[in-house]
Amino acid sequence: MTTGTDTRTNDGGPAEAEAPVARTVTDVLQPRNVLLAGMLGIGLAAAGGHWSGLLWGLLGALCAGLIPAGYIEWERKRGTWGDRHVVDRTQRAPIFFVILGSIGTGSLVMLLGGAPTPILVAMLALWVMTVGLLAVNTVWKISVDSAVASAVVALLAAVHSPWWLCAYALTAAVCWSRVALTYHTVAQTLAGAALGASTAAAFLLV
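RE: above sequence
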């Protein structure tokens, strides 16, 4: 039975030593890395292939991924959390508020700076997704890594080509790694992936 904290091994800790491949997958495909690559691609597509789109994408990656990751690392060094995964959902609320503030600020800069509509819509979609993650997290643990991996693939498919949906294999790998490391249950990763995928629906309203 899941109680809202992480599933644990019998000795009370994550089974990281038993899953080195999962550890590598979850580190390589962590949200900041996925957002950096994904937002650059979204920005480039939004600008019609013009190099300026990379700058907008970099701003998006900074606000949606790098700044929140920096905050988590800062708090980790202060001893607030054991590592970047923040496995106790009751400690996650401040992170979500930092993400909301950071994405909101980035979106405002994009709006005032005349950024291409698709990259702005992507930012707002990620903001709404974060609200959803925060709301669910108050009562049940949901996988943020799975949500981000799914959202980025869905957004790339929306602005580039449906062929990007093939990259859901990477999202599946993220889901698997989170379960293998006992950070989440299957249901928690699938819920995160479903919420992430729904962010692409924002493009249907543009």
